[in-house]
Design brief:
5-stranded parallel sheet; Rossmann fold; 2 domains
């Protein structure tokens, strides 16, 4: 462990050692120790957001580029806030305002960013594996902000942070992940993480939104993964219910008869939530489709930790930037 000194009037934060890797591309590649290092460091940074002046000089002189080829509010904004609270110079680039709209390839974009000597690039792309390609071509640290239907590692880390804060552990839990599993990188990353720690993950969806052989894609610890098409079975005695957004923008065909029919069988109503444990927490990565995957009174109810997830996102992303660049 090492102490990182901050300027006057900023108390010392007890933070961990740097990550030994250059990039953060997925949960599957992270060890238990690395995940816990990120979560513990995020806990230290969470206090920064409660100060009158929400800023520390840890990454002064570093440049972070948010390169988003897909629309995003929470991920892009929280990375921007995280970088600025660490005193980094943050630049936001969207595909609509970049040379990609003029036909520039991802490889040329990578070379251009490398020539600008960026220290870190946060990438969101519709193609699975795009951040991995950039990581091979740039000296900058690459952080995967979501690639296709592959992974969304920082979302899984902030979800784990929220679960650990509320439940006190990441092991021996029943976590129901319900909704559009087929198109969900959140489901994949969370399953990778939670089964690593010995929690039982129940993936639940209509058969049309559950990929074939999903157990071979998302989990190395098969005894902790359960697949069901029954929402009541998934919710029963659950410690955590994580609802997934129906990603209509990724659908080229109809996967269910109607929104009303979908909510009837796979929407989280207050009555259905009562089948879980009395101290259940209800999560959602956002944005929420109210009345499609979750009822309004549940999303805004006492068991919802959706806004806590948003708050945790800033602290976790501060931790990631610090652990990759702070050395």
């Amino acid at each position: 462990m090492l102490f990182v000194p901050f300027v006057a009037n900023f108390p010392l934060l007890l933070l961990g050692t740097m990550l030994t890797r250059k990039d953060l591309l997925g949960i599957q590649d992270l060890s238990h120790e690395e995940i816990l290092e990120i979560l513990d460091t995020a806990g230290s940074f969470q206090e920064v957001s409660t100060r009158p002046i929400k800023k520390v000089p840890t990454l002064r002189g570093k440049t972070v580029i948010n390169l988003f080829f897909e629309a995003s509010t929470r991920t892009r904004t929280s990375f921007e806030i995280a970088g600025k609270r660490l005193s980094a110079d943050v630049v936001n680039v969207s595909s609509a305002t970049s040379s990609v709209s003029k036909g520039e390839t991802l490889i040329d974009t990578a070379r251009t960013l490398d020539a600008m000597a960026a220290d870190c690039v946060v990438v969101r792309h519709s193609a699975s594996g795009a951040p991995h390609t950039l990581a091979k071509l740039t000296k900058a640290s690459i952080v995967n902000g979501g690639d296709g239907a592959h992974e969304h590692p920082t979302q899984a880390l902030l979800d784990a942070f929220t679960i650990r804060e509320r439940k006190g552990r990441l092991n021996d839990l029943k976590v129901a992940i319900i909704g559009d599993v087929s198109h969900s990188r959140v489901a994949r990353s969370n399953t990778h993480l939670l089964t690593k720690f010995g929690s039982h993950v129940w993936l639940c969806s209509t058969p049309t939104l559950m990929p074939a052989a999903i157990e071979k894609i998302v989990c190395e610890n098969g005894e902790f993964l359960h697949i069901t098409n029954s929402m009541d079975e998934a919710v029963r005695d659950a410690d955590v219910i994580m609802m997934l957004r129906v990603q209509f923008e990724r659908m080229s065909e109809s996967f269910f008869p109607s929104v009303r029919e979908y909510f009837r069988y796979y929407g989280l109503s207050r009555e259905r939530a009562e089948g879980a444990k009395a101290d259940v927490i209800i999560m959602h990565p956002g944005p929420i489709n109210r009345g499609v995957e979750i009822a309004t009174d549940v999303a805004d109810g006492p068991y919802s930790v959706i806004l806590a997830q948003v708050s945790a996102g800033v602290a976790v992303r501060m931790a990631i930037l610090y652990l990759l660049l702070g050395g």
